[in-house]
Amino acid sequence: MTLAALLAFNIALLVALASPGPALLLALRTALVAGPRAGIATGVGLALVAAGWTAAALLGLQAVFALVPFAYFAIKTVGALYLLWIAYTLWRDARAPLADPARRIDPARAFRTGMLVNLANPKSVLFASAVLLVIFPPDLSITAKGLIVLNHFLVEVMAYTAFAILLGTARARGAYPRAKPLLDRIAAGVLGLLGLRLLVAR
């Protein structure tokens, strides 16, 4: 494993992180609603599971999905339904006022939600498999695989922390209530479409 290969992996990872998927939407909205601590906790939960999917890809979970298609179908279906549930609740509560600060999302709950959202997307292991196959040689040592997984986790934590600090400022959070109905319905629409796409995709 070379430094150039690791750099190429990180670039691909950051591009994927910046795309408007369920993980990014959740992280951004949590930081706006509940502040930087909850936003960072969400990011850590997202990063932990994303790194876990990379570990699974390195250990050959894609081959398991190919041998046992029902396992992939079951995980994919549950994940799609979870994303659709989040989309429904966001749409339903779009015009509801923000909760009192004392009742807002606590970091432990934000962490769990981050984990569940990325657990709900088994396509992450397919993405990781494709990227890893292109960038790294097939004969990686167990140490190299561990370093790739740790690197993945740290890159995602740093990226989501930056998002949370940027959007968790008092100014950003002060402006959010005015835009909440529109932003929540946009987020609900995107998450709903992603959930439907995951549900019907082969």
UniProtKB/TrEMBL annotation:
It holds the Pfam family LysE. InterPro entries: LeuE-type. The chain crosses the membrane at residues 6-28, 40-64, 70-91, 111-136, 148-170. Keywords: Cell membrane, Membrane, Transmembrane, Transmembrane helix. It comes from the Bacteria. It is found in: Cell membrane. It is a multi-pass membrane protein. Its main location: membrane. GO terms for cellular component: plasma membrane. GO terms for molecular function: amino acid transmembrane transporter activity. This is LysE family translocator. The lineage of its organism: Bacteria, Pseudomonadati, Pseudomonadota, Alphaproteobacteria, Rhodobacterales.
